[in-house]
Specification:
This protein has eight helices and seven strands; from the N terminus they run E-H-H-H-E-H-E-H-E-H-E-E-E-H-H. With 166 residues, it is α/β, with parallel strands linked by helices. The longest helix has 10 residues.
């Protein structure tokens, strides 16, 4: 995945990712239209598909709603890199197949607009704008397979259901 860095600070909560006033729908494209709206009102107009969100500590804190990672994924964000994630956000992101990475050093040094490349399989981040390379603990086992499958439901359909019930 390679895209432009869209940088945010610490404790970006789920209400900033997708404001509660838009939770009367579960339609991914409707949610995407308001992605990050309360954290950065210009995000939807300025960001592009494939961009990478880079944020500080505790990204996705707040409520346990799965709407937040759905909005990010439906917008087309390639990956979220953070110093750390709220536990329920982390789980919800994995369950829908949204690639998320913890790499504090990359977060601290990244700047909005940097060109960043993430390789989930090898556990590397390259900031091409700054000519720096970072390593993170790559996902392994079921978590990696769930993300590669596009989420928990596709993973279960592909791997655990008999062919005649898929």
């Amino acid at each position: 995945m390679r895209g432009t860095c869209r940088k945010f600070g610490d404790s970006v909560n789920t209400d900033e990712i997708i404001p509660a006033r838009y939770l009367n729908t579960t339609d991914p494209q409707s949610l995407a239209a308001h992605c990050m709206e309360d954290a950065d009102p210009g995000f939807v107009k300025e960001a592009s598909e494939g961009d990478i969100i880079v944020a500080g500590r505790n990204f996705g804190c707040g409520s346990s709603r799965e709407h937040a990672p759905i909005a990010i994924q439906a917008f087309g964000i390639g990956c979220v890199i953070a110093e750390s994630f709220a536990r329920i956000f982390f789980r919800n992101a994995v369950n829908i197949g949204l690639p998320i990475v913890e790499c504090p050093e990359a977060v601290r040094e990244a700047e909005s607009g940097d060109n960043i490349e993430v390789d989930i399989d090898s556990g590397t981040i390259v900031n091409h704008s700054q000519e720096k390379r970072y390593e993170f603990a790559p996902f392994e086992g079921d978590v990696l397979h769930i993300i590669e499958a596009g989420g928990l439901i596709p993973y279960v359909k592909d791997n655990l259901m008999p062919d005649n019930q898929g």
